[in-house]
Amino acid sequence: MPLLEAKGIVKVFGKLTALDGAALTVNENEFHGLIGPNGSGKSTLMKCVAGAEQPTEGRVRFADQDITALSPSERARAGMSLKFQITSVLPTLTLYDNILLALQGQSSLIDLLLSRSRDALHDQVMAMLNQFRLAERAQDAAATLSHGQQQWLEIAMALACKPRLLLLDEPTGGMSLEERRVTGELLQPIKAHCSLVIVEHDLDFIRDICDRLTVLDQGRVLESGTVPEIQASKSVQEIYLRRA
């Protein structure tokens, strides 16, 4: 049974139909890429899955539960985590405290009021910083990080709650080639316990880390399959040439 299944997703904004019956299926421990030309509906489909937008039509199921009407916070509690394209780290706080706050979202109110959670969560905070090669900067303000490092910090924050599914919207935007390479390395280990849906324009990056790809064009699914299948698809090649 798929971990995530979105079917017949339609999203209408006034006179614009951004999604027209789009679908997405993601299995456990799978890295799944959403690609397509600009304006094809990738980010809108991601937002419908995450609950940031409600579909005009269609259903979304996650972990064998219909979540179509659930709020983003309810989806997060069900095991879904989202990182949008624009970073949302707290720049004046240290890296340590950014991760701590992400973890404290799971703490009880009494623990927070009595300040019990900081010491209890120390090992988890440092483990996340180590995983994303940021431990040496633990006490630095997030604002002092490079753009790529801020993206890594936010991914670490999104993973702090141990989600079953992580949604990433263009995580390598603005990164150097070396930062993109390292990002791929940092994401690979999470596959053991977390599936991934990623929207990305860097086709080389997404090809290297993903198991399957879904290609959107004008709000509809053009193709869905393994990376070799998508690379060999004439229809996929045509849309990229047409939009080049």
Molecular structure report:
With 244 residues, this protein is of the alpha/beta class. The protein has helices spanning 42-50, 72-78, 95-104, 109-113, 117-120, 122-131, 147-159, 177-187, 203-209, 227-232, 234-243, and strands at 4-13, 16-26, 31-35, 57-62, 65-66, 80-83, 165-169, 195-199, 212-217, 220-226. A six-stranded mixed sheet has the order 6-7-8-3-9-10, with helices on both faces. α3 packs across α6 and α3 packs parallel to α7 (147-159). The longest helix is centred in the middle third of the chain and has 13 residues, at 147-159.
Structural class: alpha/beta
Label the CATH architecture of the largest domain.
3-Layer(aba) Sandwich
**Strand runs, count:** 10
CATH uppermost class of the largest domain: Alpha Beta
- Gyration radius, in Å: 18 Å
Strand count, sense and barrel status of the largest sheet are:
6 strands, mixed
Distance between the termini: 38 Å
Low-confidence blocks of residues: none
- Number of contiguous helices: 11
Relative helix content: 25-40%
User: What number is the mean pLDDT?
Assistant: 89
> Tell me, what's the shape?
globular
SSE pattern, N- to C-terminal: EEEHEEHEHHHHHEHEHEEHH
Q: Superfamily at the CATH H level of the largest domain?
A: P-loop containing nucleotide triphosphate hydrolases
Annotated CATH topology of the largest domain: Rossmann fold
Strand content: 25-35%
Q: Provide the spatial order of strands within the biggest beta sheet.
A: 6-7-8-3-9-10
